[in-house]
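Hello forum,

I keep getting stuck at the same step: I have a sequence, I want structure tokens, and every attempt I make locally crashes halfway through. Rather than fight my setup again tonight, could one of you with a working pipeline run this one for me? It's a single chain of 76 residues.
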Amino acid sequence: MDIPPATTSTKGPAELFTGDVYFDVIAKGEEPSQLRMNIVRFAPCSRTAWHTHAAGKTVYTPLASGTGMALPRITS
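Reply #2:
Ran it on my machine without issues. Output:
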């Protein structure tokens, strides 16, 4: 696993986010791993485009406040 040094936050691309969203990659797995850990910050009224992750996703929201929507977990 690669833990990159601290860098300036990256602005989320307009095709994935509405409003001002910034993220920092805090860890990334080496190939063939698909592991990636990001810290993502949403400015007020910002949101993400509705999407899915084929390999799954875990969202951890420490000390977060605001309003959000998520679908229940679907297992096959």
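The longest strand covers residues 21-28. If your local run keeps crashing, start a new thread with the error log.
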